[in-house]
Write a structure and sequence with these properties.
Layout: H1 2-23, H2 34-69, H3 78-101, H4 110-134
Length: 137
């Protein structure tokens, strides 16, 4: 019984140590394998996408205020134009990055190239949305 308990504790500690190794955060500057590079590129895109979503909310609010300031309801359309531009931009971003991925078609770099492209264009769009309202306020 004593040996069974010792073995169970040892297995538990071994499993915990292995899990801790797996759960260690990936330092992208140290990424070596293609899987790590893809994960890092995807993480970069997710970070930029969160920034975009935050800026989108701020920009949409400001643009809504522009519409509200226009007395003639028939002349309002800032929010509609913003939504139209964002939908077109998403379509452009996705198509452009897919095309960019074909530059390395068949290679293991393709997912990283696409994710980094998505991150780059998303970063630029965030700046555009910020500039849109910063120039007016």
């Amino acid at each position: 019984m004593k040996w069974t308990l010792v073995a169970a504790v040892w297995l538990s500690l071994s499993a915990s140590a292995a899990w801790a190794e797996e759960a260690a955060p990936l330092l992208c500057k140290d990424a070596v394998t293609e899987a790590e590079m893809i994960e890092c590129a995807h993480n970069e895109f997710e970070i930029e996408d969160k920034k975009l979503n935050a800026q989108w909310a701020e920009t949409k609010k400001a643009v809504s205020e522009w519409d509200a300031a226009i007395e003639d309801e028939g002349s309002r359309g800032a929010v509609k134009a913003l939504l139209k531009s964002q939908r077109a931009w998403i379509d452009y971003r996705d198509g452009h990055c897919d095309a960019d991925g074909f530059s390395v078609y068949g290679g293991t770099m393709r997912p990283s190239v696409i994710e980094l492209c998505l991150a780059d264009l998303t970063r630029k769009r965030t700046a555009e949305l910020k500039d849109l309202i910063d120039g007016i306020q």
